[in-house]
Amino acid sequence: MTAATSATAATPATATTTALDGQVLGWTVSPDRAELVTVHDTPGEEPTIELVTRRIGPDGAPDGEPPRPVTGPLPPDWRVLDWAGPRRLALWRPGRRSQLCVLDLAGDVTHRGEVLGRPLRCRLNARGDVLVLLVVSGADKPELWLHHAGSNSYLPVPDSGGVRRVGAWDADAGVFAADVDRTRFYRHGQAGCVEVAVDQPDDTRVTATAGCAAGRIGLTGTRVTGDTVPGVLDIATGRVRWFDDHPGGTAVDLAPAGTRLLTTTWDQQRHTYQVLDPAGHRTAVLDPGPTLATDVRLTRDERHLIGWHQSPADEPRLTRWAPPDPCPRPLAPRTSTPVGMRWRHRWVPDASGTDLPEWVFEPTGTTATGTVLFLHGGPRGRLKQEHDPVVEAMVRAGWSVVGPNYPGSSGYGERYLDLGRGDWGGVDAAALRRRLETLHDAGQPVCVYGQSYGGYLALRVAAELPHLVAGVAVWAPVTDLPALHTGMTGVRRRWLDDELGDLRLDQRVLWERSPVSQARVLAGTRLLIGHGRSDDRCPVDQSRRLVDLVRSCGADTGLRYLEEPGNHAPADWGPWSRAVVEHFAAASTEGRSGATG
Q: Residue limits of the Peptidase S9 prolyl oligopeptidase catalytic domain (predicted)?
């Protein structure tokens, strides 16, 4: 897993205290599964994090030695990039010229420098040279390049225009996988990279890779029918073995010895995991029940699993399992008390003829005081029963949270996924307007919350039905579609062009579907807006412009704007969640007094 971390990675491991009692924000396990590195938040006025390492046994349990900080506290714009070597971590810092730092688990920096483009993966070759695969925005499409840090040289990877990601990378064989128009395999050497042919059936194409070990790479293939199937590539022969007895599965990890493949299936409710031996026989199954296990990895003994364990009522915790026993064995302490919550997935009839799937999260032991219509980001995202700090805070405060997976959400088939493409704020907003009307008819206050694209939809729906909404809270919303399109370049511009389709050519419709065009209506709404100052996905100017326009319309008491140094998500969800709870409480109270006064 790629964990989000923080700042000056050159700080050696001299800290005498750690944040081990704080929340684990991320984790990563070494390729040999002998070392676990966790990322913790640290207390203080400024948000910082700390990397902590500990040795783990073959079953994934800590071996008894005390955990140790890798570095001192780091600022939040550094991120763990990859395992560069057996005991080497690569960190990177986004920016015009990304900064790369490679350090050992004692905290000593072995390399630090700038790189062009965005790093994706990092490895040390046999001589200890730092090799980085990164994306460079070309004139037409983003391209994959191989950077040799020692010589500061860059070599383009052939036919990699339009690269989306880099998957498995076998350091010994020098082979890595890149997703371009299809999954391609390359072997790198001093002269650059050459594509490696893979022998596979015509009716199945490789669509994803996961894990590499002992000259093998875990694969997910997609049949011409659209069904997925897990498999393994033998690098030496170039042959693929598909496990046809396990249709619908996707590969998520390959054991260090290369003898066990971890696969998962998803049934719109939860992940179920299976461990397959080289013959494709199932050796273990993990079904965590109504809770979720995500980002799961095999341990050294190939009989235990490590991953996130979570539910809507409980924050993610690093956990290990001994399948088929679904009982979680936490590796990190709980930092908060789980909320009393029940949740369920349901389908709601819609006038369009296509029923609307949604999740409902409700407090147990009490009657909800109102409803929050919760809109996920995206637009191709989805809401499921993962932990969300805002949902948790709302349920703790006595609200019922209804989270529609509006048209365009993933997880319900290609047709449903494509309903909103080229129609931002169209079919999706129409479905949400109808859902808002039915929720309002129940007689309790209804507030609307959204993040990113969900924030855009929340503002759009509230502007069209302001009399049905007690309050609105949004984080990092899109507010001005023409300005967003004009300001984007490179990979993000191409993505937005694809998302908007022909809609991008009609400036009038783009403006009409932008919340900034409805500033006068929104000025009469109880409105809370939050945005990260360093947001690289949705520029903070999107919120600033709307705030200025709403205030110019006379919204002095109904508008609150919070801006912080974070990125596309709050650096700390706690203050933001509390602000949302307070805002909705005041909005619903005002709404009731207004209705009776």
A: 393-560
